[in-house]
Amino acid sequence: MIAALPFWGVAACTDTPRADPANASQVASGQAIYAANCASCHGPNLEGQPDWKSRNSNGRMPGPPHDDTGHTWHHPDAILFGITKVGVTPPYAPAGYQSDMPAFGGTLTDQQIWDVLAYIKSRWSPRAREAQAQIQKQLGGQ
Predict the structure, then answer these.
(1) In a designed cystine with 21, which of 85, 88, 94, 122 is the match (CB 3.0 to 4.6 A)?
(2) What is the C-alpha separation between 93 and 87, in angstroms, rounded?
(3) pTM for the whole thing?
(4) CB count, 10 Å around CB of 116?
């Protein structure tokens, strides 16, 4: 659940952001990786799980949408990369936070994670892309 996360750990992920929604080959790669690894929880059209703002019976949050209706675009690339790589764990969530979001660092390469983020960003409206670019700029490109 990215919505409740403040900007913890912005400096924890020092890779230069490399998710380029204008890079057709990166977006195509990311689309295939997203379909295989992310769509089952976040939806084939990035729509998220139903009632994603309310806890499931297990107390965990459903997979949020990654389209404009969600909050993914409210976060800088470094946060999105870090959550995808290590999961919703410190420094991206409070200690003990329970999430169904797996860490993909052992499954996907860093480049594959960037490709997925490029694909997700390619599906945002120009308004959402610009808003997220401003967040990136305010944080010095992190």
Answers:
(1) 122
(2) 9
(3) 0.85
(4) 29
Which residues, including other chains, have CB under 8 Å from residue 56's CB and lie 6 or more apart? Answer: 62
Centroid of chain to Cα 131: 15
Spatial separation of the C-alpha atoms in residues 83 and 14, rounded to whole Å: 13
What residues have CB less than 8 Å from 21, skipping those under 6 apart?
27, 118, 119, 121, 122, 124, 129
Contact, 48 vs 61, CB < 8 A?
Answer: no
Using one digit for the tens of pLDDT, what is the confidence trace for 105-121? 999 999 999 999 999 99
Q: Encoding tokens for residue 141?
A: 């490109």
For 38-58, write each residue's pLDDT tens digit. Answer: 999 999 999 999 999 999 999
Rounded distance, CA 57 to CA 39, Å?
21
Alpha carbons 122 and 75: distance in angstroms, whole number: 15
Q: What is the CATH number of domain 10-138?
A: 1.10.760.10
Domain boundaries, the chain: 10-138
